[in-house]
Automatic annotation (TrEMBL):
Gene3D superfamilies registered for this protein in UniProt: 3.40.50.2300
Signal peptide extent: 1-24
Protein's organism: Micromonospora trifolii
Keyword Transferase: no
Pfam families reported in the protein's UniProt record: Peripla_BP_6 (PF13458)
Xref: InterPro entries: BCAA_transport, Leu-bd, Peripla_BP_I, TAT_signal
Protein name: ABC transporter substrate-binding protein
Domain Leucine-binding protein intervals: 39-381
Claim: Signal is one of the keywords in the record: yes
Keywords, alphabetical: Signal
Phylogenetic classification of the source organism: Bacteria, Bacillati, Actinomycetota, Actinomycetes, Micromonosporales
Membership in a protein family: Belongs to the leucine-binding protein family.
């Protein structure tokens, strides 16, 4: 069986739940007997507690799903997946990386918090071990050699929505921008202003910055929301995720019934379960929607729902793709890969057949990919992010 046919057979069989046959077939190492390929260690860095834990769980699930489909192998090598808690600071993130490096990992993946990603940059680069980040991606992460990202760059979400809202908002409309005071928010605001129009009077007001806590209370945002709404905006553009997104939207809806726009993290994963009707009508821009109609997504989303009983998120998808690019890169290195060989191979893998659609790494080691507009709508008894249309190709 050819390498491509074997890969497709494994994916389809796994989606149907025929795991026994998958295990018997092995993975994609036809070019060299898999018996000659020794075990490798991959380090997975995610928050294991706090407001971003649900995102970390999705990242773990996405990576593990790829391993399940491929007989727990990457590039033909049996994988030992080592995990570490990134915490919520640069210090805790650095400790997680250093702990995994001491265990001899071939590559690293994961990372949710942008502050953590910035904090571990030098440690990763000096260790010369590739990190395939599957979430955090601040635009300040420039001129890196060993850090790749399968997610996005934060300003891209702002760009995608900026262009869309520029054309949608009435001439007499006004947008209030509300953001947590963290590493990623300036990226989102800059991208939004750049594509909406930096001198457009409809967004001329200063940004309202809120607490950056990932575990807010029931009144954490109340005063900031009141201040942002003082000039009676017709729409709100915001940037929150996880538990913070839930509390922000609940507190915003107590005072504002108008349209809300945001990068898609605002309504991803468990957020919708907690918001219920408060989320209806929110429009977001994201690089993935679980209802995308392509073969790779049908396989991925079906297998994910079967294994985890939930709809996959962009976090899970990006982590699945992180495993996919590692699989291809390690395959290219042969039987005894080193971190440096894997890093060089990552630059040679070309286009990725992903659940989000075809994408490839650009020069800054981030995806060149499509962005989609989604709207929260009712799907039976549950809320769902429904694909509306394609917004832009960025990267």
């Amino acid at each position: 069986m050819s390498q491509m046919n074997r890969r497709r057979a494994l994916q389809l069989l796994a989606a149907l739940g025929t795991t026994g046959f998958v295990a018997a077939c092995g993975s994609d190492g036809d070019a060299e007997p898999t018996a000659d390929r020794g075990p490798i260690k991959i380090g997975l860095i995610t928050p294991q507690a706090g407001g971003f834990k649900s995102i970390g769980d999705d990242i773990t699930n996405g990576f593990q799903l790829f391993l399940d489909i491929h007989d727990q192998r990457l590039g033909g090598h049996p994988v030992e997946l080592l995990t570490a808690d990134e915490g919520d600071t640069a210090k805790t993130g650095k400790a997680a990386v250093e702990g995994l490096l001491k265990q001899g990992v071939l590559a690293l993946t994961g990372v949710v918090n942008s502050a953590v990603m910035v904090g571990i940059r030098d440690t990763v680069e000096q260790a010369r071990v590739p990190l395939i980040g599957s979430n955090a991606s601040p635009s300040s992460l420039q001129s890196v050699f060993y850090i790749w990202r399968t997610s996005y760059v934060l300003d891209e979400a702002g760009k995608a929505l900026g262009r869309y809202l520029r054309d949608q908002l009435p001439a007499n409309g006004r947008v209030a921008i509300i953001m947590p005071e963290n590493v990623g928010s300036p990226d989102v605001v800059r991208g939004f202003r750049q594509y909406f129009g930096t001198t457009d009077p409809r967004i001329s007001d200063p940004v309202t910055y809120t607490s950056a806590t990932s575990n807010p209370g029931k009144t954490t945002y109340a005063s900031d929301i009141t201040r942002a709404l003082a000039k009676k905006p017709t729409a709100v553009f915001c940037f929150f995720a996880g538990a913070a997104a839930v509390e922000f939207i609940k507190q915003l809806r107590e005072k504002f019934a108008g349209p809300i726009y945001a990068p898609g993290f605002l309504t991803e994963g468990t957020v919708l379960e907690n918001l219920k009707d408060n989320a209806l009508g929110i429009q977001t821009a994201l690089n993935y929607s679980a209802d995308l109609n392509n073969t790779s997504n049908r396989v991925f989303a079906s297998a994910y729902r079967k294994k985890y009983q939930v709809t996959p998120t962009t976090y899970a998808m990006a982590s699945y793709d992180a495993a996919q690019v590692l699989d291809q890169a390690i395959q290219l290195t042969g039987g005894k890969p080193t971190p440096q060989q894997v890093n060089l191979a990552l630059g040679k893998i070309g286009q990725i057949d992903s659940p989000r659609g075809i994408w490839q790494f650009n020069q800054p080691r981030t995806p060149q990919q499509k962005w989609y507009l989604r709207e929260v709508q009712r799907d039976g008894q549950v809320m769902s992010n429904v694909l509306i249309n394609e917004l832009a190709t960025l990267g």
